[in-house]
Each structure stands twice: as structure tokens, then as C-alpha cells.
Amino acid sequence: MNFDLLVYNIGQLILPRFTGNALKGEEMKQLAVRESAAFGVNDGKVAWIGSSTEAEGYNAKLKLDAEGKVVSPGLVDPHTHLVFGGSREHELALKQEGVPYLEILARGGGILSTVEATKNAALQDLVEKASFHLERMVSHGVTTMEAKSGYGLERETELKQLSVIHKLNEKYPISVVSTFLGPHAIPPAYKGKENEFLLEMLDVLEEIKEKKLADFADIFCETGVFTIDQSRVFLQKAKEKGFGLKIHADEIDPLGGAELASSLGAASADHLVAASDEGIRMLSESDTVAVLLPGTTFYLGKDQYARARKMIDEGAAVALATDFNPGSCVTENLQFIMSLAALKLKMTTEEIWNAVTVNAACAIGRGKEAGTLDVGRQADFVIWDVPNYKYIPYHYGVNHAKRVFVSGEMIWERIPFGEFQLSGAR
Ligand code: NIG
Ligand code: FE
């Protein structure tokens, strides 16, 4: 056989299974790990998977020695607020004083301060800022991600954010799935007129549909933000317009977001820290993926994490994401989230790998394209500088990625120590 690229001498090749839907409950415990493996790539797609010994007999334009390291599919980050202006480091002191997240928002800070900064930023500046964060995500092994609007709360800025996401897809070979989160907070001028605001957001959504600027619609259903009834009406209308559904659900208070997401057939319900027993039961009986964001719980300094064990044990599909944003989770590092999932959510290593690959892809409607390495699939993968697949959640807070590939092309590589070059230095 002849390949464009042949990757051989892989210590462990991680092969999450795609069954047509996200893996649920017990299925999440299964993870195929092939030792001494190799695979071939032609035209950007996986053309063959086998043993490293077999690979010795095959030809390729480029042969890449994985040096006995771990190779996995590119990671998928299914919940990020990638596009925003400014930053909120001044809120750290408020957090230390114990001011709650929703209180900062109620005082006009939090999301609302990022809304101001995003309104004032030029499109090109937002592209550059988002690129900086996106590249850092990629350097940590992510090759598909989701990104939301939601720092505009009005037509022009929401469309500007979605245009930034569109431009990122043109600029980079990775996929950025786009979500409209117009109802992310109540603009001060609409206090008491939330329904009017939601109607306006639905008009914007109509325009987004025409311009094909988003695949999903999302809403922040929370005390002091949008009620469960308002969320139901908004999501129902978004569904009628043909959008996939997501919901910031039961993050702080158990308002019934998990129940709503499952009953509407949402692609995902996200956060779920306070999800009720009934909500978890309904999730496990639906195809809605529970997207858990332990980085946010950590960053908000909460003791209670989402009940991942109960969700998986009852048969739900769980995915993990960074929730990268300037207020409640300021990290691009999905590997750190994998460590939190092990330590705080008590997920097994196998469940964690499935949660950041195949299930994360399903949560953003990309199960057929991303999150697994099968013959015929796009060759998006990561070479990890670790001795085995259990090592990543264990050794936390650092970057273990060595090389990142999309469609068989290397898009990022860690520079080995001592090989730095200062271009233009005299
Ligand atoms: O998912 N919870 C609501 N929205 C974001 C936070 C956005 C922000 O604080 O800027 C989240 O945590
Ligand atoms: Fe979020």
C-alpha cells in the first residue's frame, strides 16, 4: 500500500467508537486502545489502521515515527465563548471578597461589562483576539470547537461576533461550530421587558438563518436572567426555524433546564451543576448530551460539582468542555478540564477520553466528522508526549501535546528546547 502519510510506532492509539449517537452510560466506559499501532493517510483521510509491524511493508511520501507515544483523535471543545472584547481581571478581587457571580452581573459587571467591550471592538480586532485564543486551544490538542455569540445582546454586535466565527473558519483548517446566544443576559434597557427582548432576538435569529451564520441557538436560563418559560418559548421558536438547540441549564439554581433540554430534543444541556434527579433521569432517556464544565465550577470557587457519576450511572451521555470565557472560566486548556473531570467529577479515564472526543463532537452535531479515527474519516489527530493514555488527567495544568494534525497536515508543533529562532533579531 501507498500513503501520503504513514504514522508508525504509536505506543497507544486511542480509538473512541462512533455508533451514530453519543455514547451513553456504560458505553462511555469502553475505549479501544490499540498498542504498537500505525495508520496511513491519503487525501487528508484515514486510509488504513493496523499494526506498526505491518506498516513496515508499506510505502508513503512521508513516514512519521510516533516514538512510542500516545496518539488520539483531535480533541473537540463543544462549549466556548471564544469571541469577546476586553478582559475582566478586575473581577478576581471581587471574587476573593466573596461577591457571587450573579451579584457581579446584577451590578452591571460580569457579562454586561464584556458586552460593552465587545460592542466597542472593531471586527478585525475581535478576529485577532479570538485567533490568539483559538491558536492556544489548538496547541492544547483541539481540532474542532464550538463558539458562541452573546456579548452583543443587540443585532449589530451579535452579527459581528458570528462574522468573526465565520472568518475564523476561513482562516484556519479547524472547524468552529457557531452558536447564537443572543439571550445571554438582560440588557439594562430591557429590565422588566424580557419578552420584548426575546422577540427581538428571534428577529435577529431569522436574519442569522438567512445568512447561515449559526447552526445552534442557546439561552442562559438562570435566576435573574431568563426564566424556564421564557427559555422554552425562545428555544421552541429557534427549533421551528431549523436551529439545533443548546441551553445554559441549571448552572447555579435548579430551574428545570435539563428537563426542558431533553423534552425539546436539544443537542446539549450545558453546566447542569444543580440539575435535579428528574432532570438527570430525563437526560438519560434522551439523546441530549450533558456538556459538563468543571473548569467553571472550579473558577467560581464552588464546592458542588455537576453529578457526573449519577448521570453516567443512570445512562446519560456526558461530554466535557472548557466554557472558555473572560468571566467564569478563563482557560483554553481542555487537558486541565480532563484532570478536573477525574478529580472532581470522578469520571474514569476512559469516560473522560470519550467525553472530549466522540461525545463532544455529537454535542455540536459533528459526530460523523470529528472525535474518532476510522478509515474514511478526516485525519485530525494529536501526538501526545505521554507514556500512556491514563497519564493526561493525572499530570495536570500543563500542555502534553507534541504535534497537532488536521486532515493529515501538521498545524502545530511544540518547539524542542534549544531550537528557538528569533526572526529579525540582530
Ligand atoms: O457559560 N453562564 C453564563 N455564561 C458564561 C459566562 C460568561 C461570562 O461570564 O462572560 C458561562 O459560564
Ligand atoms: Fe457558557
TrEMBL record:
Name of protein: Imidazolonepropionase
Pathway given in the UniProt record: Amino-acid degradation; L-histidine degradation into L-glutamate; N-formimidoyl-L-glutamate from L-histidine: step 3/3
CDD domains: Imidazolone-5PH
Cofactor(s) annotated in UniProt: Zn(2+); Fe(3+)
Cofactor binding note: Binds 1 zinc or iron ion per subunit.
Binding site for 4-imidazolone-5-propanoate: R88, Y151, H184, E251, S328
Top-level EC class: hydrolase
Lineage, uppermost ranks: Bacteria, Bacillati, Bacillota, Bacilli, Bacillales
Record-linked HAMAP family: HutI
Residues reported to bind Zn(2+): H79, H81, H248, D323
Pfam families attached to this UniProt entry: Amidohydro_1
Organism listed in the record: Mesobacillus subterraneus
Protein role: Catalyzes the hydrolytic cleavage of the carbon-nitrogen bond in imidazolone-5-propanoate to yield N-formimidoyl-L-glutamate. It is the third step in the universal histidine degradation pathway.
